[in-house]
Design brief:
- There is one protein chain.
- The chain is mainly α and 288 residues long.
- The chain has 2 domains: 211 residues, Type IV / VI secretion system, DotU (Serine Threonine Protein Phosphatase 5, Tetratricopeptide repeat, Alpha Horseshoe), CATH 1.25.40; 53 residues.
- 60% of the residues lie in helices and 0% in strands.
- Helix 3 packs parallel to helix 5 and helix 4 runs antiparallel to helix 5.
- The N terminus is likely disordered.
Length: 288
């Protein structure tokens, strides 16, 4: 398996973590992780089929939240706002428990919880905007952090962690995941916000690639434009192209021929009429 960040489900991670002692958890690193990777099987029912284990504990702990976002996005018409809120509260609590079990620093757990609450709040506000609901009155950020808007603090945190990217690379990866999944924050409402946000995402993408020595994993990989331009002739068989061109030329030729023939007939009729008139005039004159 390549050395890249990949994901497992929260249940898989919790079951494995429960079977390890605290000392064993601390000794698992990138050098000896191959000793454990055979314990994980890729789930055919999971929507996230490209990863088997995660080197990023924050994303592992946050996966239930991301998964719920995808599920709601696919079936948002039949969703109940109150039921959704309760589900997200449960997922955020699960994130906190999972992150704690992975020996993540408590302050970092709270920071990422703040980020995840901001991400979910913006998602819900944007998708339920046309409905008679007001998510912000009882948002996740207000429930867990007693704040109402995290769209600006998200980027303050990003700038702070970018000062020491190697130390906070896992946090930066999670922040990039939120951006790649549609989080805009304060850039949603400012002029030219989309352009500035794209620049931030590009810069963060490059920084992660520099620190990790590889591109970010497929869950949030940057969309790279195709290297070759689209060519119509590469998509159409030559026989079909030749037949189509020949048919088009035949239609044009037939149309021009028919038009020219009609014009010639009109011209000949005009000449014949004029000649007949002149002969009649000449004949009439001779009689006189």
């Amino acid at each position: 398996m390549n050395n890249k960040t990949i994901l497992i489900s929260n249940n898989q991670n919790r079951n494995f973590s429960n079977n390890l002692t605290s000392n064993q958890r601390k000794t698992i690193n990138r050098d000896n992780i191959n000793n454990y990777q055979s314990r994980f099987k890729r789930s055919k029912q999971s929507k996230f089929k490209n990863y088997e284990i995660s080197f990023n504990p924050f994303i592992t702990a946050a996966m239930p939240i991301f998964k719920l976002v995808f599920e709601i996005k696919e079936d948002i018409e039949d969703a109940s706002i109150n039921d959704i809120r309760e589900e997200f509260i449960d997922k955020v609590n699960t994130y906190t428990e999972t992150a704690s079990s992975l020996d993540i620093d408590e302050n970092e757990i709270l920071v990422i919880r703040y980020v995840l609450c901001s991400f979910v709040d913006e998602f819900m506000n944007s998708h339920f905007l046309s409905k008679d609901y007001n998510w912000s009155n009882n948002s996740l950020l207000s429930i867990f952090h007693n704040e109402t808007y995290g769209g600006e603090n998200f980027f303050h945190l990003l700038n702070r962690f970018l000062k020491t990217p190697a130390k906070y690379i896992h946090i930066l990866e999670l922040l990039y995941s939120c951006l790649a999944l549609g989080f805009e924050g304060k850039y949603r409402v400012i002029s030219r916000g989309e352009v500035e946000l794209n620049n931030i995402k590009d810069s963060l993408f490059k920084q992660i690639k520099i620190v990790q020595g590889r591109e970010p994993f497929p869950f949030y990989s940057k969309q790279i434009p195709a290297q070759e331009s689209y060519k119509l002739f590469n998509k159409i068989p030559y026989s079909t192209l030749f037949f189509s061109v020949s048919l088009l030329l035949l239609i044009i030729y037939s149309g021009l021929t028919f038009s020219l023939s009609n014009q010639n007939n009109d011209f000949i009729d005009l000449i014949n009429n004029k000649t007949t008139i002149e002969i009649d005039d000449l004949y009439t004159g001779d009689k006189k």
